[in-house]
Write a structure and sequence with these properties.
By secondary structure, this protein is an alpha+beta fold. It has 3 domains: 10-100, Uridine Diphospho-n-acetylenolpyruvylglucosamine Reductase, domain 2; 110-219, Uridine Diphospho-n-acetylenolpyruvylglucosamine Reductase, domain 3; 236-318, Uridine Diphospho-n-acetylenolpyruvylglucosamine Reductase, domain 1 (Alpha-Beta Complex), CATH 3.90.78.10. Helix content is 31%, strand content 25%. The protein has helices spanning 10-15, 17-27, 61-73, 125-134, 150-156, 165-168, 197-201, 217-234, 254-260, 289-307; strands at 33-39, 51-57, 78-81, 87-89, 94-100, 110-113, 116-120, 137-138, 159-160, 163-164, 169-175, 181-185, 204-211, 213-214, 241-244, 267-268, 271-273, 280-283, 316-318. The protein has a 5-stranded antiparallel sheet. Strands 1-2-5-3 form a 4-stranded mixed sheet, covered by helices on one side. It is globular and about 55 Å long. The protein binds flavin-adenine dinucleotide.
């Protein structure tokens, strides 16, 4: 009987670790950085998660594209990471390759021209927002305090205070099936509330362009400052977390439901429902991914039992 694998089986990965490492190094350009058994708690804001077999900080598009083609053609599982601010990496880590876009020398560039801002997937949303504000371009103020990358922001359609990246999107550059760059217009990106085309297709985002409006830099900066102050006042930024744990259920607020269910301060191991903002699960100290996931499930069950509302996780779960 034959068995089909969508990705390389575990024994293949274990027996070929050195070969895969050498193959990746051969495809890397001078900017790419490749490590083995990389602890993932260093790369996500929740500060949990076991090791990734291979961790590649992407270099230029050609070398990155070649590595992705290599992984695809050898059925080696891979995933893309931005700033790790919306993920829980499980305690046994990630099998296969993690391609990190953050700090990629090439894929973090930013350019502003004629009211269109371009940023590479590895650029921080906060950096782009601040640079545009200083240059007198408005629109991205809401994103100034979101701790993610442009790639992660577009993938998630990150938003806050009534704005979302999808509202400003002009186009997205992706790595096509053939491993080369392709540009798709915003109208084909299906940007909705925490929902995008990219969640369904798994396409790799290389960069995005946003349409902005001209305004006075000091006015834009003042708006950003105010929003960041609101964030600091309301959110438990002093603890590791992944921001709002759940999506906003239609007609409700997740944090309010959790608070009304009496779950503020409720904990499993080192994971806790924040006392400051019940919509955040925080790592109070020494939490494991299993603690966080068990807590999330308990919260979902208790809120459903009390209010009949199913809370859907916004945070993505990676690894095994
Ligand atoms: C304190 C705090 C506050 C937050 N506040 C907000 C908020 O106000 N609004 C909000 O929307 N979010 C918020 N978040 C959540 C998070 O910052 C956003 O979802 C952000 O968009 C995630 O970006 P990232 O680069 O960290 O993505 P990651 O967490 O690294 O990845 C998230 C998902 O995107 C995929 N991905 C990442 N990059 C790419 C790419 N280049 N191509 C394809 N797929 C990719 C990953 O595979 C993963 O599935 C907050 C988080 C924290 C910790």
């Amino acid at each position: 009987m034959t068995q089909e694998f969508t990705a390389a089986p575990r024994w293949y990965l274990v027996n070929n670790m050195d070969k895969i490492f050498e193959d990746l190094k051969a495809l890397a350009d001078e900017y790419a950085v490749i490590t083995k058994d990389e602890p993932m708690n260093r790369h996500c804001t929740f500060k949990v998660g076991g090791p990734a077999d291979y961790f590649v900080t992407a270099g230029d598009v050609e070398s990155f594209g070649a590595m992705v083609r290599y992984a695809r053609s050898n059925n080696i599982p891979y995933l893309i990471l931005g700033n790790g601010s919306n993920v829980i990496v499980k305690d046994k880590g990630i099998r296969g390759i993690v391609f990190s876009m953050l700090n990629s020398e090439i894929l973090s560039g930013r350019v502003l021209f004629d009211g269109l801002a371009y940023a590479g997937a590895g650029a921080k949303m906060s950096t782009l927002a601040l640079e545009c504000a200083n240059a007198g371009y408005s629109g991205l103020e809401f994103s100034g305090g979101i701790p993610g990358s442009i790639g992660g922001g577009v993938y998630m359609n990150a938003g806050a205070y009534g704005g979302a990246l999808g509202d400003l999107l002009y186009s997205v550059q992706i790595l096509g099936e053939d491993g080369f760059m392709k540009e798709i217009p915003a109208s084909e990106c299906h940007m909705a509330y925490r929902d995008t085309r990219f969640m369904k297709t798994g396409e790799i985002i290389l960069g995005a362009k946003f349409k902005l409006k001209e305004d006075e830099p000091q006015d834009i900066l003042a708006r950003m400052k105010e929003l960041n102050e609101q964030r600091r006042a309301k959110q438990p930024l002093e603890y590791p977390s992944a921001g709002s744990t759940f999506k906003r259920p239609e007609g409700y607020f997740a944090g309010k439901l959790i608070e009304d269910a009496g779950l503020k301060g409720f904990s499993v191991g080192g994971a806790e429902v924040s006392e400051k903002h019940a919509g955040f699960v925080i790592n109070k100290g020494g939490a494991t991914a299993s603690d966080i996931l068990a807590l999330i499930e308990e919260v979902q069950e208790k809120v459903y039992a009390k209010f009949g509302v199913r809370l859907e996780r916004e945070v993505r779960v990676l690894g095994e």
